[in-house]
């Protein structure tokens, strides 16, 4: 039948078109699903260390910052420093937030690095981009819907929607309904 | 055809890049007059439910979802949390250490002592920091529900 030919052409070509983003969303989806257990976007590392601030004027935040950065061998670009209170100094360098306990001469570094691929995948999947990407993602979602619908009618006969396909499609609908019932 | 295809790919690549470089978050900031964080914390009743503009350095960012930041107050040792709806605004980790102008509605998070401990524990976990319940003081949790922000590069 002519409509089935067109159905299969649409299904085939949309399948090709959606492949890249679908794989990206698969990776991001699994990663974000487990956000309670890990950080899917950044690799965060906390490092504590002792520093020697003797001889440095404790009221001079710039001098303290330079001393700390030098002792930590931190060479990344300095963004800012902030004196939280008399005994606490924060030093912000690219990918590293350093909190200095001036009295105890201890520093805590919070080092953050974007996870390769996952950062970009999450950026798109969670629509951090907004604007134009929102419309593109809507189109992609519609394309997935069309892909699903046309997929039902690719085959005729026992393996089509009137046979095995009906049972598998039914199972695919039943499973989320079951979980909704289970957790309601 | 080839040229059109290349232009199309360029458009796709550039779209998220251009938006990602934007320094305005959410609805941006429309309130002109800034309110000092100390004024809000000293007299929350006068501000709860009101939309305010605050200015200060971003000290901390939610590492997991980018759904909150702490903005430094004008008085030593003070800071205020700006909470945004997950996904609506996402603050990048790189925002820490940058000056920000934030617009939001002042609210009080009313929690029991136990809820407060759970909440602060959750925040610490998001930052991957240890949490010591004994350090929690019996104080009100005043924060901003963030509507928009402008963060300096």
Compose a concise summary of this entry.
Chain A has 184 residues and is an alpha+beta fold.
Q: Secondary-structure blueprint of this entry?
A:
The complex is a heterodimer of chains A (about 180) and B (about 150).
Chain A: H1 2-33, E1 42-50, H2 61-71, E2 78-85, E3 88-93, E4 96-101, E5 106-114, H3 118-125, H4 132-152, H5 164-182
Helix pairs in contact in A: 1-3, 1-4
Chain B: H1 2-20, E1 24-26, H2 37-42, E2 51-61, E3 68-72, E4 79-83, E5 99-109, H3 113-127, E6 141-151
Parallel strand pairs in B: 4-6
Antiparallel strand pairs in B: 1-6, 2-3, 2-5, 3-4, 5-6
Describe it.
The complex is a heterodimer of chains A (184) and B (153). Chain A has 184 residues and is of the alpha+beta class. Chain A is built from five helices and five strands, in the order αβαββββααα. In chain A, a hairpin with a 2-residue loop joins strand 2 and strand 3 (88-93). In chain A, helix 1 (2-33) packs across helix 3 (118-125) and helix 1 (2-33) crosses helix 4 (132-152). Chain A starts with a helix and ends with a helix. Chain B is an alpha+beta fold. In chain B, 26% of the residues lie in helices and 30% in strands. Chain B has three helices and six strands; from the N terminus they run αβαββββαβ. Chain B has helices at residues 2-20, 37-42, 113-127, and strands at 24-26, 51-61, 68-72, 79-83, 99-109, 141-151. Chain B has a five-stranded mixed β-barrel. The model of chain B is unreliable at 12-22 (pLDDT under 50). The A-B interface holds A 35, 39-42, 44, 46, 79-80, 82-86, 88, 90, 92-95, 97, 110, 112, 123-124, 126-133, 136 and B 12, 15-16, 19-20, 57, 59-60, 63-65, 72, 76-77, 87, 90, 93-94, 96-99, 127-129.
